[in-house]
Structure formats: structure tokens, C-alpha cells
Amino acid sequence: MAAKENFEYEALHDAASIGEYLKALRKGMAKGEIRFASGDDEMILAPSGLLHLSVRARRKGADSTIQIKIMWKEPGSDPAAPDKESLAIS
Amino acid sequence: MILFDGLHENFRFIALETHSLVNATYEWMKNPTAAGHDRITARDDYVDNLKNTIENQCYALIGAGKNMRPDAISEIRGIQIGAVNLERIADNCINILGQVAHLKDPAVLENYNHAECFSVISNTIAGVAEAFENRSFADALAICRAEPELDRLFKIYFDRILAEMNSGGDSQTLLTILFIFRYFERMGDSLLNIGEALIFSILGQKIKIHQFEALRQNLEESGFDTSMADMDLEAILGTRSGCRVSRIEQGATEERRRDGIFKEGAIPKMRAEKAGLDRWADLAPGLAPRVISYRETGETAGMLIEFLPGHTFDEVLLNADEALLARATAALKSTTGAVWTATRTPEPPRIDYIEQIPARLKDVRKVYPHFMRPETAVGDARSASTQQLLDGCMEIQNALAPPFSVLIHGDFNLNNIVYNPDSNKVHYIDLHRSAYADYVQDMAVLIISHFRIPVFKTRMRRRLNAQIRTLYDFAATVAREWDDRTFESRMALALARSFYTSTRFELNEPFARAMFLRAHFLLERIASHAGSHCERGWEDFKLPEAALYY
Q1: Residue of B380, B465, B532 to mutate when probing chain A, most A C-beta within 10 A
Q2: B164/B293 Cα distance (integer angstroms)
Q3: Which phi and psi angles does B468 have, rounded to 5°?
Q4: Contacts of A41 by beta carbon, 8 Å cutoff, 6+ apart
Q5: Which residues are CB-contacts of A85 (< 8 A; sequence separation ≥ 6)?
Q6: Angle of helix B146-166 relative to helix B114-126, nearest 10 degrees?
Q7: Which residue from B378, B385, B524 is facing A21, i.e. has the nearest CB?
Q8: pLDDT 10s digits, B385-400
Q9: Measured between alpha carbons, how far is B447 from B465 in angstroms, rounded to an integer?
Q10: Greatest distance between any 2 Cα atoms in chain A
Q11: What is the arithmetic mean of pLDDT over B271-280?
């Protein structure tokens, strides 16, 4: 697994076409994996375990935002596993 | 002349010193001694120092003068360019000294009349300081004329040296002499730069000597008084298209004043513009400027056209009060509508909105390399790549022939429309792209020239958006009245094209991105409508009007 992989997508939509994206995400969550592809680059994320969901909504003047964020730790990265390098305490 | 402490004195010194250095080089060549060589090199060091001092003074003056008048800045720039080129002439004298050292017998130089070259250079430099002090056009032109004269002499000696080499002459000697004449020719280039810098300093705009000559010839033919001293040339705008535009006001009494715009550019473009203006003059006298004179010289053409008083529409939009803007907009709609009505022909024009995107993509990507989207997928939700969208929309475009043609402006940007509040008349300028085509093209360009104004204050943005709505409604009304059923789909393509290609002029990245995203959004809408199998095809397409506003 590469240390850092990125996918970005930005576009204008209307409510109906954004619905297609939300549906695709919901389907991926149910299946346990979501594929993100941009040209020849591909990344598959598998949300599982403890998922941190944050939903933010904001209205400021004429501009409104809904921000949905889902965060989790990859299963391979055991938070209790000992560090490969010895820990020096001085 | 504007006084700057010590700057003019230093410029006079550098001109005098360079003049002496040129003369000393000529004398030295008759008797090239080591001591003479050192004296000339020392003079060159002095010229270098003077140039540095002048440059420092110029930059310091410009840096310190927050509210400096534009003519003062022009004068300082002229002096700086003049000093840099005088120093280059001095350097070329030193280069000549270096070449003479390669001659087996310097006496051989006597067979070549280099005195002629020295005389042109020396006499020209002798007048530089005074020309700058008097800010004299005639003297500036005289300085410029040294260049063609030195070119002519170089050609004569080049041909002669070549012939001598071919007939077995000593190549080291001949090559060295050729280099020496080459340096004379380069000094001519520097003199031209000096003369042009003075013209620039007087006019406050960059004008090349050949443009100046073209202007003079045009003025002569058009019956303007050709005494340049009586004229006031004022730059009114620099266009992106590469033609220089100047307004000429005669210094004579108010009643006899005639205004003109001088344009100079490559022949094909100037011919196209003249043809456009002549056509408009027949069709709608007074709408476009009249051609006063036209002349082709070499690869460029100069044209003097009528100056139409008034404000360009962007000035009206950004500065006028609501009542004046409403009056100007009403005049614009009525003029545009009248032109369309008068020129409408049933022949459908070819449209090439989509083709224009790849044609400008290189320029867009120079500024924004990432403004080309790959195909993307989030799970099952897919978005087509830029290329896929362009390919798809190209096919669609071919099925969308407009039902009629009208004579369009062809570059219907806000700054190509002039409104005269006194006569309440609208005029068109810059008509070199005018042709029988789709009226939607002009309206899309006009709408985007509103959108892309980088003004973000809420009140002004509302005004721009309101103006866009007015213009869009006007075009949509015309479409309904003339039973143009594919208006909205062609408008979407034309707007996508203008949004996309406008990004290359916009250095504010978020604003450029907003236009890039709108271009894609419109193309995606068109592409998805093609796949939706609507009953009445393109007649059912609805342009998402929200994309027109920012």
C-alpha cells in the first residue's frame, strides 16, 4: 500500500446528478469497497471498523455548504502494534 | 521636459562620452597603439558606470514616485533605454578593438571605407543628448534613420567580402573585417532603439518606427496636417489582438479638429478589418467607423479610421448610473436587433463552437495545465473526460444547424461596442471577424465578456448578472419570434466554448476554475441530453441558466 494516495473530483451538478454520486457511495458502503478512478489512476477504499462520520452544514449569506466526511483507520494499521523502530525516551 | 535631479545631466554625459569613444575608436584604427587601446577601454568603463548610475536613478525615481504622472514615467523609461543602448554602442567599439588585434596588417582596413560607417554613427550620436532634451520628433526620426543606412552599408561590404573570399582572399583577414562591419551594423540597431525610446518617451506608448512611418503616410493621404509637432497622439487602448490603436487630435482650432484611430498590423488581418468596415459602411452607415485611408507597406498595413466618440460598453457597465446603463442597453438591443433583421438570410451558417476549444486548449493549458479533466469514477458514478465530452458534443453540434444567418460582429466583446450618450447611439468597432453567421455566437461572446469581468463586490456583481439576464432574455425572445427551436442548445455550446477559452486570460485561479467548471457542466448537459431520447430532440433542451451567473 502506498503511503499516500489521492483522488480528487470537482464538478458542477444539479440535485439529480449529485444524487447519482450519493447513490454510488451508498452502494459502495454496503458492498464494503468503493473504487475511485481518475484516468489511469485507481484507488479502492474499504470503509470498515470504527467509522468516524462528521456532517457539517452552513449558510453564510448567499453561500451554503453541506460537508460530509467519513474517516477510519485502515485495518492493517493496528494501533496497538509495537513500533518497528525502538522507542528512545530521554 | 520634466526635471529629475541629475538624470538629464548624466544622460548628456553618457551621450557625449559615447560620442568621444566612437571618434577615438575611429582615430585609433588608423594607428592602433597599446596606449590608445587602454585609453579607449578606460572611457568604456566610464560609460558603463554612467549607465549604471542612470539606471539606478531611473529605478529609484520610478520606485519613489507613487503618484508619478504617466508622461514622467515615459520620459524616465526613454532615458533608461537610451542609456542602455549608448552603453551597447560603446561595448561594440571595444569589440572592434578586439577584432583589429586579429588583423595581421591593420593597414588593410584602409581598403575598406569604414569611415563612412563611423561618420553615420558619430553624427547620429552627436545629436542624441539634444534630441532627448528638446523631446523632438524630427530628431528622434533622424536617429532612427541611422539604422537602415548602416544596414545598407553592411550589405555592400558583406557582398564585397564574400566575393573576395570566393576569389581566394585571406580568410582570416576577411572574416575579421566582416566582424568589424557587423559591429557597425549592431550599433545601428542600438541607434534605432534609442530613437524609438525617444519616440516612446514623447508619445508615452510603444510605437515602432515602421508604424510611425505608416501613420505619417496615412495622415498625408488623408489630408490631415502632417506636421507631427502639431499633433497630440493619445493612446486610448491596447488591444489583445496586436493592433496598436492611437487617437489623433489635431492641434488646430476646435472646429477644425478631426479625430482618427490609427491601426497597424499584419496585412491579412488589416485587409479583413477594412473589408469588414466597408461592408458595414454600406449596410448601416454610421454604425461602424469609416475608413479614412489605408496603405500597405511591406508585410504590414496601416489604416486611419474615424474616431467614434463615446464610451466602450465596459466603461458604461462599470461606471454609469442605472438610468444611463438602461438607456445604453436599450440602444444596444435595438441596434443589434435592427442589424439582424436587416441582414437575415435563410441560409444556415456552419457553426464551429466545439472546434474552437481544442484550438485554444494549448494556450489554456499554458496557464492552467490541469484544466483538462480525465475520465473519473466514484463507484458506479462516472464523469466523462474533457476529450470525450468534446468528441461527443462535436457530433451533436453537426446536427444543430441554425435556421438562418445574420451579419454578426464576430468579436462582440464589451470593449468592441461604443455607446455615445449624447446621440444615444451604439457603434461597433474592431470588426475584422465580422461575417454572416449564427447570432448566438455574438450573444454568447457578449454574455461571457460580462461574466469574466473580475469584479467580485456584491453590488457590481449583481449588476453584471442582471445585465447578463437582460441580454439572454433578449436573445431568447428573438429566438422565439424567429422560431429558432435549437437556440438553447447552440447557446449552451457557444457559452461552453467562451467559458473554456476565456480561462486563458484570467489569472485569478478560483475565478478561472469557476469558468472551467461551467464549460464542463454545459457540455455534460448537452451530452446527457443526447442520450436521453427526448421526444422532440434538441427542441426540448433547457439551458441551465444558473450557470450564466456568478
Answers
A1: B380
A2: 48
A3: -60, -45
A4: A7
A5: none
A6: 170
A7: B378
A8: 999 999 999 999 988 9
A9: 9
A10: 59
A11: 89
Contacts of A66 (CB under 8 A, 6+ apart): A55, A56, A57
Residue B211: pLDDT band by 50, 70, 90 thresholds?
low
- How far apart, in whole angstroms, are the C-alpha atoms of residue A43 and residue A7? 8
CA angle B116, B117, B122 (to 5 degrees): 100
Residue B239 DSSP code: -
Q: What percent of chain B has pLDDT over 90?
A: 61
Question: Which residues, 6+ apart, have CB-to-CB distance to B475 below 8 Å?
Answer: B439, B440, B443, B487, B491
Model confidence pLDDT, tens digit, residues B29-69: 988 999 999 999 999 999 999 999 999 999 888 887 767 77
Q: Is the per-residue pLDDT at B373 higher than 90?
A: yes
Handedness of CA B269, B491, B334, B330 (dihedral sign): negative
Instruction: Determine contact: A35 vs chain B, CB below 8 A.
Output: yes
Q: What is the largest CA-CA distance in chain B?
A: 96
Q: Which helix (H) or strand (E) holds B246?
A: strand B244-250
CATH 3.30.200.20 in chain B, residue ranges: 210-306
Nearest-CB residue to B379 (from A11, A25, A39): A25
As assigned by CATH, the class of the B210-306 domain is alpha beta
| Cα–Cα dist B387/B367, whole Å | 19
User: Any residues with CB less than 8 A from the CB of B267 and at least 6 apart, and which?
Assistant: B296, B299, B300, B301
Backbone φ, ψ for residue A67 (5° rounding): -120, 120
Q: Could you give the angle at which helices B171-203 and B146-166 cross, rounded to 10 degrees?
A: 170
The 3-state secondary structure of B183-213 reads HHHHHHHHHHHHHHHHHHHHHCCCCCHHHHH
Q: Judge whether B538 and B485 are in contact, CB under 8 Å.
A: yes
Alpha helices in B284-321 (DSSP H): 313-319
* B301 contacts: CB under 8 Å, gap ≥ 6: B214, B264, B265, B266, B267, B270, B271, B294, B295
Measured CA to CA, the distance from residue B34 to residue B447 in angstroms comes to 72
Torsion of CA B507, B509, B511, B514, to 10 degrees: 130
Distance of residue B534 Cα from the nearest chain A Cα, in angstroms? 17
Q: Does B226 have pLDDT greater than 50?
A: no
Nearest CA in chain B to A8: B376
CA B415/CA B238 separation, integer angstroms = 11
CA dist., res. A77 & res. B187, Å (int): 73
**How far from B122 is each of B22, B86, B153, CA to CA, in Å?**
6, 12, 15
- pLDDT tens by residue, B438-465: 999 999 999 999 999 999 998 999 999 9
Residue spans of the domains in chain A: they are 15-71
Q: How far is B546 from chain A (nearest CA, A)?
A: 10
pLDDT of residue A76: 73
B311-548 sits in which CATH class? Answer: alpha beta
Q: Three cell numbers at B381?
A: 458514478
**Given CB atoms, is A12 within the 8 Å cutoff of chain B?**
yes
B7-204: in CATH 1.20.58.220:
yes
